[in-house]
From TrEMBL:
<keyword id="KW-0436">Ligase</keyword>
<dbReference type="InterPro" id="IPR004365">
    <property type="entry name" value="NA-bd_OB_tRNA"/>
</dbReference>
<dbReference type="GO" id="GO:0006421">
    <property type="term" value="P:asparaginyl-tRNA aminoacylation"/>
</dbReference>
<dbReference type="GO" id="GO:0005737">
    <property type="term" value="C:cytoplasm"/>
</dbReference>
<keyword id="KW-0067">ATP-binding</keyword>
<feature type="region of interest" description="Disordered">
    <location>
        <begin position="1"/>
        <end position="22"/>
    </location>
</feature>
<keyword id="KW-0648">Protein biosynthesis</keyword>
<comment type="similarity">
    <text>Belongs to the class-II aminoacyl-tRNA synthetase family.</text>
</comment>
<dbReference type="Pfam" id="PF20917">
    <property type="entry name" value="AsnRS_N"/>
</dbReference>
<keyword id="KW-0030">Aminoacyl-tRNA synthetase</keyword>
<dbReference type="Pfam" id="PF00152">
    <property type="entry name" value="tRNA-synt_2"/>
</dbReference>
<dbReference type="GO" id="GO:0003676">
    <property type="term" value="F:nucleic acid binding"/>
</dbReference>
<dbReference type="GO" id="GO:0004816">
    <property type="term" value="F:asparagine-tRNA ligase activity"/>
</dbReference>
<dbReference type="InterPro" id="IPR002312">
    <property type="entry name" value="Asp/Asn-tRNA-synth_IIb"/>
</dbReference>
<feature type="region of interest" description="Disordered">
    <location>
        <begin position="43"/>
        <end position="96"/>
    </location>
</feature>
<feature type="compositionally biased region" description="Basic and acidic residues">
    <location>
        <begin position="62"/>
        <end position="96"/>
    </location>
</feature>
<dbReference type="InterPro" id="IPR045864">
    <property type="entry name" value="aa-tRNA-synth_II/BPL/LPL"/>
</dbReference>
């Protein structure tokens, strides 16, 4: 007779096998599973296996009967469940089969329907209208189908009832399918809400392109819990969401508002090239490519080209993609970003900062004055208010003092630029000194503590690009400062970088030399100093950074249609 082992402490009825190595836990279970075996039981691994007493066996018998009863009941339940499912399936198949017989036809005796985008429906209340779009949301409530339709211009609640809700298409409709719906636009019933305050009572409709259901259904490919890398791969589907599309709508309005503000200040828009053979912001961040056998770069900034437009067109601006080969994975760096740049002639440094402040405030005012864009801002950034003018102006030297007074330090580095460690492995932190590049973390903390837009100005020349105009005379500790400014915004940090430019030819040649730049490919830029130079300045604004501030987005990646960052150039 086979022996079956039970260990009341170390055994398990779920994973045990009744062997010495894997004993069961209860006598009842052992009896239930092996009624004619020799049962051997022990209290715990420290005691010996023994045959159970008669009274223990009697008790276990009752337990085994209980287990058998439970098993039978579970089996019955499973059978009943399977039967119910089968009946439900058959019922659905029958309903679906029947539904195929229902053929909807548009009633030609009804008033002709006006084709409209959702955004223009308010004027068509009470009328028969025709709308097309994507099924954004779908709900079946006791045979009445509610669709929230999306056409890019807005959302519309549509109600399918009676025969319109009984067709095969209605019963198999899926989210993200495209549909055409015809019906009467009615105000929503008292006490109910819907986008626009109205809903479409549908009398005729058809599916134009069915989206898959089941495993491949939209909501199975993408939902709130999806991993960031999946969201990045499926950016084309993410864009259909309410938040992502609202950000892009606001972006479009923002670019329009910027253009309106700039044009009202007599700037004219130009479109500089993306393929260039000169650097602006340092060779380290250039994307290089082969251009018919010649080394060429993707532009870092259109500034130098804008400078050439001043004598031809007066003050100019552009909205152009800039490219930076920075291996930065921060939430404010992209490899390709939309760069709004402007250049102004015959100005002083103060005029430049006044102009930047005006353009930003007038752009925000324009957005808030339009109810549609104001609603987008409120949706994405509830409680947003326009920044207060004038913006704070803080010199670089004062900022260094401020950081030290507020004990905001930076990591110490050795001569090779390696971070110096303390004995406990943490980074050694030190105070800032004039000449330090204020790092992103320190800059962000300062901006967030001050909590308002800040013009940080007068950076040391050695930290800045070759073209920047110097403040006359050497400053503190022999440093040479520049007429440069960064505009910092709470939550994001630097959104604008600008400066006055070198206007003197000799100074420009000295700058080329200092930076090790060969002047020959810059001949067209140098000519600007030769044929009628002028005092001038300009700036570049990162559109995604500005939008991240305006729409309170965590990262600039949310503010770009198809963001690119190191390692990512799809979709
Ligand atoms: O400060 P930057 O490098 O300045 C220039 O390129 C000047 N030539 C512009 C000019 O004066 N015409 O860049 C300007 C702005 C930054 O303030 C920032 O908002 C944005 O461009 N920017 C970036 N945005 C996203 N990702 C990046 N990698 C960015 N690099 C700069």
């Amino acid at each position: 007779m086979a022996s079956i082992y039970i260990d009341e402490t170390a055994g398990s009825d779920e994973t045990g096998k009744g062997t010495q190595e894997q004993p069961y836990q209860t006598l009842a279970f052992a009896l239930y599973s092996h009624s004619d075996a020799l049962l051997l039981i022990r209290k715990d691994p420290n005691s010996e296996y023994e045959e159970p007493t008669q009274s223990a066996l009697k008790k276990a018998k009752k337990g085994a009967d209980g287990i058998e009863k439970k098993r039978k009941k579970a089996e019955e339940l499973a059978e009943r469940d399977a039967q119910q499912k089968k009946e439900e399936r058959e019922r659905r198949e029958k309903v679906l089969e029947e539904s195929k017989k229902i053929v909807l036809e548009e009633d030609s005796s009804l008033p002709a329907a006006t084709k409209s985008k959702i955004v223009n429906l308010a004027e068509l209340r009470g009328k028969r209208v025709r709308v097309s779009g994507w099924v954004h949301r779908l709900r079946d409530q006791k045979g009445i189908i509610f669709i929230v339709l999306r056409d890019g211009t807005g959302y519309l609640q549509c109600v399918l009832s009676g025969l319109t809700a009984q067709t095969y298409s209605a019963l198999t409709l899926t989210i993200e399918s495209t549909v055409e719906l015809v019906g009467t636009l009615q105000p929503v019933p008292e006490g109910k809400t819907a986008p626009g305050g109205h809903e479409l009572s549908v009398d005729f409709w058809q599916v134009l392109g069915a989206a898959p259901g089941g495993d491949d259904a939209f909501t199975n490919r993408l939902n709130e819990k999806s991993d960031p890398s999946i969201l990045a791969d499926l950016r084309h589907l993410v864009l259909r969401g309410e938040t992502a599309s609202a950000v892009l709508k606001l972006r479009a309005a923002l670019l329009n508002a910027f253009r309106d503000a700039l044009v009202s200040h007599d700037l004219i828009e130009v479109t500089p090239p993306c393929l260039v053979q000169t650097q602006v912001e340092g060779g380290a961040t250039l994307f290089k490519l082969d251009y018919y056998g010649q080394p060429t770069f993707l532009t870092q900034s259109s500034q130098l080209y804008l400078e050439t437009c001043l004598p031809a067109l007066g003050d100019v601006f552009c909205v152009q993609e800039s490219f930076r080969a920075e291996n930065s994975h921060t939430r404010r760096h992209l490899s390709e970003y939309t760069h709004l740049e402007a250049e102004l002639a015959f100005i002083k440094f103060e005029d430049l900062m006044d102009h930047i402040e005006s353009i930003i405030c007038e752009t925000v005012d324009r957005l808030l004055a339009n109810p549609r864009t104001a609603a987008l801002i409120q949706q994405l950034n509830p409680g947003f208010t326009a920044p207060v003018r004038p913006f704070m102006r803080l010199s670089y030297v004062d900022a260094i003092k401020w950081l030290n007074e507020h004990s905001i330090q930076h990591e110490a580095e050795d001569a090779e630029g390696n971070v110096i460690k303390n004995d406990d492995g943490t980074s050694k932190m030190v105070d800032h000194v004039v000449g330090d590049d204020i790092a992103e973390a320190a800059e962000r903390r300062m901006t967030d503590i001050l909590g308002c837009p800040i013009f940080l100005h007068g950076f040391p020349a050695e930290l800045k690009a070759f073209y920047m105009k110097k403040v006359p005379g050497a400053g503190a500790d022999g440093h040479v400062f520049t007429e440069s400014c960064d505009l910092l915004m709470p939550g994001v940090g630097e959104i604008v970088g600008g400066s006055m430019r070198i206007s003197d030819m000799d100074e420009l040649f000295a700058a080329y030399k200092r930076e090790g730049i060969d002047p020959s490919p810059y001949y067209w830029f140098t000519d600007q100093r030769k044929y009628g130079t002028c005092e001038h300045g300009g700036y570049g604004l990162g559109v995604e950074r500005f939008l991240a501030w305006l729409a309170n987005r965590y990262t600039v990646r949310e503010c770009s249609l198809y963001p690119r960052w190191p390692g990512r150039a799809t979709p």
